[in-house]
Each structure stands twice: as C-alpha cells, then as structure tokens.
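Re: weekly structure request thread

Next one in the queue (231 aa):
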Amino acid sequence: MDEIRLITIAGPPSSGKTSVILKMIESVEGLKCQCGVIKFDCISSLDEERYTQAGITAQTGIAGNLCPDHYFVSNIEACLAWAKENQFNTLITESAGLCNRCAPHLKEMMAICVLDNLSGINTPLKTGPMLKLADVVVVTKSDLVSQAEREVFRYKIQQVNPKATVLFINGITGQGADKLARMIGLAKSVSNAESLKLRFSMPAALCSYCLGETRVGEDFQVGLNRKIKLS
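Done, posted below.
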C-alpha cells in the first residue's frame, strides 16, 4: 500500500470520539479490514478493547507525562509504517485534547473535532486549535438537548470555526455517521511523513512546572511565566 488516508480525530475526554469512529467505520462496507486506529491517551485507555471487539485493528499509545498531541506528532512516522505493514488504506488517529492548547491536525489531511453537546453551551468558545483548525466538527449527545440548544451550540462552533462542516452524530445508534463516512471517502492520502506539517505550532515545555519542578515560589520559576492580574 503506497498511500494511506490519514485522518486525525481529537476532542475532550468522554466526548464520544471512539463511538463516532466505530459507527463511522461500520457504516462503510469493507472498511473494517482496510483501516487501523491508533489511540493516544495520557494515563490509560480501554478503547483498544472496544475496537478489537468490533473487529477493527487498533493500537494504543500512552503519553504518560507528555502531552498526547506532542507524543502523537513524535510518532507519526511509526504509525504510518504500522499501517503500511498491515496493508491498510486508512489510518485513523484518536487523541484526547486535554490541555486545549495543542492539536494533532495536519495540513492536507482530514481533521475532525468531536464535541459533546452536554458539555456546556460555551464549550466551543473554550476549545482551542483542535476545534478552530478542524475540517469537520462532530457534535455528540445532541439527542439529549432541545432543538434550540443544538442550534445555539452549532452557532458557537461556527463563531470559532466558520469554515468547518458541523455534523450531529448519535454515537449509540450511529445516526449521522454515514455522512461523516462519505466525507472521509474524499480525504487525501499521504505516502510518508516527510511531507506532513502541523496546522498549528504546539506550545512546548516553557516553564519550570512543564519540566518537573514541584516547589512553589518565584525563586523556582524559570522560563515563560504569566502572572495573574487581580483587582
């Protein structure tokens, strides 16, 4: 397999990313055997078991004390190699946007953000580049809110990212997943990681606490620090 469709899916923890991916793959005949999923998380993840039970080949990368998006971009070459070894034509990466500062999205590759409609009406305004730079924003659990709440949530998303396509998908029934699957069918492919670039430059470890400092006080703070202004 020379080229692989690489799709990045990011979203806050428990927003329904895995359920959306499962329903999307299931809605395309034959895709289960042609794609692999790699889940990036910080401490632990049971999602690989869900993929395996559904007949989908999956792997898990635990970032530990690193940002999962930094961990992802440091390992993308290995991920593509794994997909080629398994002769997949599609590689989906799933990562939790824990700090809202980073995003795994890559130029030219399809980028998807998943948000939970129950997470709060202003969640889109609080979400960083993983939403702002996504091609598609999937909203889950919208069956549990009113039509008015759905439309306000959509409006808030479009305030942050007016170019994104907004899809409402039910992660339990799969309603709406076929629309996402059709969009993924149009996603571009890549042959190797050398041509890839991030859509957003990720903040690195810039202060003492990023580097492991535990002591409190200005004497122990180096690098980039910002002080709160209290009135």
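The longest strand covers residues 4-11. Residues 110 and 186 are 9 Å apart (CA to CA).
Next request, please.
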